[in-house]
Amino acid sequence: MLGLAVGLVVMVLVAAGSGQVAVPPFEVMGSVLHHLGIDTGPLPTHPQGENALWAVRFPRVVLAVLVGACLGVAGALLQGVFGNPLAEPAVIGVSSGAAVGACTAIVFGISLLGNLTVAAAAFVGGLGTTLAVYWLARSGGRTEVVTLVLTGIAVNAFAFGVIAFLTFVADPQAREQIIFWQLGSLNGATWSAVSAVAPLALVGLVLAASVAGRLDLLSLGEGPARHLGVHVERLRLVVVFAVALLVGAGVAFTGIVGFVGLVVPHVIRMVAGPAHRSLLAASAVGGALVLVAADLLARTAVENAELPLGMLTSLVGGPFFFWLLRRTRSRQGGWA
């Protein structure tokens, strides 16, 4: 945790100071301290330094921290409740549902909430789709993990069909906006976006912390967990709702950012072990660190251009997923 926290602070200072208006890390720290009322450290010497930091860079970096933490914790929750290291937030349809909501608002020109309309539609779509997957997977008052995963796959396929249809009927401008949203980006980060995501992220993280102990008991098996007093069905419902809240709030303003919820918790588990109290906390900090670093690479790798954030995370996460798949299969002696 100490290493991750130090790494995150350093990465935040570097990311906030990087761009066309370069600000050294010590000046970034000095600007933050002065805004906190601590008159120490150098202020940015560039005439546009303060404006670049507080109007553009800090909203983007803070949003990256929030979204990364949400995705990392969501992945750890799903891997814990499914008992499978291959689980990630897209499994239960929250990302595809958010995409359907955003695409619907874009294609039909809905603007009830002004600039926040697309983000609100994405959040509602992600939450609604996740609850629909959970309801469809229930039978006899219970929800089996395999049924939940297969239902999520079916709903994902249907959602991507809806997205394809909306893309087909959209005008060229809306089609371009849909494609850009699905690629993922923090380009539109503002303080209003941060203020909208932060409360939802806080609720989701508190819910995650509240179920950490019960997830440890569930890892013993569903039967032993019940004998130890865990209401397994209620636990799954809380986890699914928390994941929908975390991922829905995250992707609402950034678009789809894949594989963070898969890669980060698995790496943390390899280093720190499976205990969920430490795993969830470390996954939050690790997810924030990964997304801040990925966003820094996205906007600085190519001069005068910004690479899609979702593309970068997928280029790294895809091969990692394949390696994880092969490793898991070899350890289990084959899927049969």
Automatic annotation (TrEMBL):
<dbReference type="GO" id="GO:0033214">
    <property type="term" value="P:siderophore-iron import into cell"/>
</dbReference>
<dbReference type="Pfam" id="PF01032">
    <property type="entry name" value="FecCD"/>
</dbReference>
<feature type="transmembrane region" description="Helical">
    <location>
        <begin position="190"/>
        <end position="215"/>
    </location>
</feature>
<feature type="transmembrane region" description="Helical">
    <location>
        <begin position="280"/>
        <end position="298"/>
    </location>
</feature>
<dbReference type="GO" id="GO:0005886">
    <property type="term" value="C:plasma membrane"/>
</dbReference>
<keyword id="KW-0472">Membrane</keyword>
<keyword id="KW-0813">Transport</keyword>
<feature type="transmembrane region" description="Helical">
    <location>
        <begin position="90"/>
        <end position="110"/>
    </location>
</feature>
<feature type="transmembrane region" description="Helical">
    <location>
        <begin position="61"/>
        <end position="78"/>
    </location>
</feature>
<feature type="transmembrane region" description="Helical">
    <location>
        <begin position="148"/>
        <end position="170"/>
    </location>
</feature>
<keyword id="KW-1003">Cell membrane</keyword>
<comment type="similarity">
    <text>Belongs to the binding-protein-dependent transport system permease family. FecCD subfamily.</text>
</comment>
<dbReference type="GO" id="GO:0022857">
    <property type="term" value="F:transmembrane transporter activity"/>
</dbReference>
<feature type="transmembrane region" description="Helical">
    <location>
        <begin position="305"/>
        <end position="325"/>
    </location>
</feature>
<keyword id="KW-0812">Transmembrane</keyword>
<dbReference type="InterPro" id="IPR037294">
    <property type="entry name" value="ABC_BtuC-like"/>
</dbReference>
<protein>
    <submittedName>
        <fullName>Iron complex transport system permease protein</fullName>
    </submittedName>
</protein>
<dbReference type="InterPro" id="IPR000522">
    <property type="entry name" value="ABC_transptr_permease_BtuC"/>
</dbReference>
<feature type="transmembrane region" description="Helical">
    <location>
        <begin position="235"/>
        <end position="268"/>
    </location>
</feature>
<feature type="transmembrane region" description="Helical">
    <location>
        <begin position="116"/>
        <end position="136"/>
    </location>
</feature>
<keyword id="KW-1133">Transmembrane helix</keyword>
